């Protein structure tokens, strides 16, 4: 498995929002008009109807200057994905290319993933199921799963006029990020690569001009402890216990068959069999 | 109480275990469905076009399937944008698919507070009639003894998406009518 990654160079983004519209266009997402809240930002944050949002931040530099910060906000495709971990229906999986996808037909809309996503990206939204009914299902960016598996790049990456969103193998993208970091350092001394180790790195990662706090990003995102306990310890133990029970029953059945031959009517079971004339 | 013999209990347990095993093995109808999901643009007719919005003139590919526009994207072979598009260009599919698109010429009569649908023929005749009427009633041949041959009652407004040939035609027509106010969107 080769991990692929989407690298977003936040330092050169101009905030044109081409990625937002291209995403809606490719994924046939509905219009979601939100009330004006005093900023140029169109949507509050990512949700099930808007899989990527261009975050616009007004930032005061150390020297008292003003800087616009534009960040393409979308699913991070964590290597150790909390959403995948907590999903009781195994509807969320990581593909062979490293992107995390939700099977809408398996999802039951329990929203465990919504509450456990360290970046608050996944959300419920309308979905028309096999019976034509509108149901609530967890939805988010799938990194254009069908596109990347056909050798294309995600829609947001293709449309970006600045090459601020680049798609390729994680290794190539890390290298490119290091090159761009060296350039960005001249203008932004606090520039850094945001590829948080708390979730084993992400397959959508940033080159940020300022620290993650400036973008309201968690400094050290982690898979919630409850999710780790449940999925990594409690569930395997439970499965082992279930397996043990099945094994015990099977063994009991076989041993019963083997050792009870010849005893016949002395057995309690045999007696009842006689009386019911089975 | 419900009495179960040991043999019945074992049979029941076996059946339960077998059912669970089959469920765990996964007879899953969704899997086949997921595997069959193909690229949205796999079977589309592709038409190249030019973005109608600003003067950059980016190339766009329009994907059509079953008489509907299913996707629009930047043309990777176009020398100007090389596959990229801004938010306005990316939304060009909506020009065709939106339910807010007027499909007939809209007319608002002088003093009226509402728009009404009209036929193209009626519209063109009406425009021609009004242009002629306005030009003839306001045409100035001489001013201070100098021939000017102009009308200041009509103005022309060009757009950024006009190409050379269209600009030439507009210039010819408007100068022929005697217009002096020939403007362009990018200058105001």
Number of strands of chain A: 10
Assign a percent range to the helix content of chain A: 25-40%
Instruction: Spell the H/E element sequence of chain B.
Output: HHEEEHHEEHEEHE
Question: What's the arrangement of strands in the largest beta sheet of chain A?
Answer: 8-1-10-9
Largest sheet of chain A: 4 strands, mixed
Query: How many independent structural domains of chain A?
Result: 2
Major beta sheet summary of chain B: 3 strands, antiparallel
Order of helices and strands of chain A: EHEEHEEHEEHHEHEEHH
What pair of chains forms the biggest interface? A-B, 31 and 33 residues
Average pLDDT of chain B works out at 87
Give the strand order of the largest sheet of chain B, numbering strands 1, 2, ... along the chain.
1-2-3
By CATH, the architecture of the largest domain in chain A is named 2-Layer Sandwich
Pick out the low-confidence regions of chain A. none
> How would you sum up the global shape of chain B?
elongated
Give me the number of helical elements of chain A.
8
